[in-house]
Amino acid sequence: MRDIVKIYARPKLNEPNLLAAWPGVGNVAIIIATYLTSKLTFKDLAEIDPAYFFDPTGVLVEESIIEEPQFPQSRFYYRKSDKPGGKDLILFLGDDQPATKGYELAHCVLDVALRFHVKRVYTCAAALTRIHHTEMPKVWGVGTNLAMVQELKKLNLKQKGNLQIAGLNGLLLGVAKEREIDGMCLLGEVPMYASRMPNPMAALAVIRVLANMLDLEVDTADLARLAEETREKMKQAAAEAMGQYIDYFTQPIWEQGQENEEDDGEDGEEE
User: Fold this and answer.
1) Rounded to two decimals, what is the model's pTM?
2) Which of 126, 151, 198, 217 is the most buried (most CB within 10 A)?
3) Residue 225 domain-assigned?
4) DSSP class of residue 184?
5) 96: pLDDT strictly greater than 50
6) Is the pLDDT of residue 94 over 50?
């Protein structure tokens, strides 16, 4: 680990939790992690050397000059609790997920966490459902053991018996279970048809639950505004798509035939 990880600080942390985030469906985890860094004060803790886990496939060129290969960052930050005796927080933020060495990266992240005596790991993700974008997303909760699940039930989070959490936002917790570290994942509902769009609505729902679990005071007003703006954009896009659909399939038959005749005539003239 010494060759792969650079430690920038060695603070004495009080029973710290680890919150880890990578890009994923709806970018739910990344939106949450970056929002927390914008609203709360974090300090640099450590960084993982990306060259071991990532292979650049090209380089950028600026004014005919080739730039050095660029790697996604994998960094740790820490925050001391504002409350006496409160648990501190370590935040891991990964810019990207490696193509092949995800399992090794998960172990590396946990190695750093254990170095600072982390007892519990949190991740966030998206739960793809048939929810409509105008509905308020619910939050699902899953844990690495029965005790974690019981704790989530007390928060009245939606329970889902069987599901799959893709990528490192899920894999990290599987590795944590291998190493007998408690872990939880909070999943915000995301419409199946909008899986490729950033979803601050789901992120907002999750961050409200997460802040309560981690005893954080976070002003979510800006994220709420972004969520509402995104919801309106989705509504407009859906309305435009529906309008085009209706226009196409309700066009009178005689107009469609006329267009076909005109197309045939144009083809004949060109020949």
Assistant:
1) 0.84
2) 126
3) no
4) E
5) yes
6) yes
